[in-house]
Here is the input.
Amino acid sequence: MSNLSGNQKRKMRSASRLYAVQALFQMEQSGQTVDAVMREFEDHRFGAVYEGDEMAEGDVETFRRVMEDAVNNQAKIDKMTDRALVAKWPIARIDPTLRALFRAAGSEIIGKSTPPKVAIVEYVDVARAFFPETKEPSFVNAVLDHMAREAKPEAF
Here is the structure.
């Protein structure tokens, strides 16, 4: 990885965040373990070619950190998300893709390696990939901003 440009590394980290959201979604839907899902994604998704479209190469380190932190801190992240959502919409009632996205983003917001503002920008981009031409990215931005200000007020 050392001979990759900074831009290539950023793209790989961004791809890893998208894969983490997909993997967390798959875990919730299928009941698979985090290890099984991570193995499947690393073996079959990263850099794979589907119907002529090459999937982006992910950064395994970023992917694993996001996955493990999201799973290990899920209760804390879900409570933060609930506080950021309007009272009528507890996390259990939102779209499962958004739930996975908030868990992945939350893992980075409470973690130490990603500045909260970077995490927000990255996951709003992920929301755009899943929900093009809708209001979801703005909603995601507002929820993540609330979560980040609660978790790391000093960053704002």
The radius of gyration is 15 Å. The helical segments are 6-30, 34-44, 60-72, 74-84, 96-110, 116-130, 136-151. Strands lie at 49-50, 53-54. The first helix runs from residue 6 to 30.
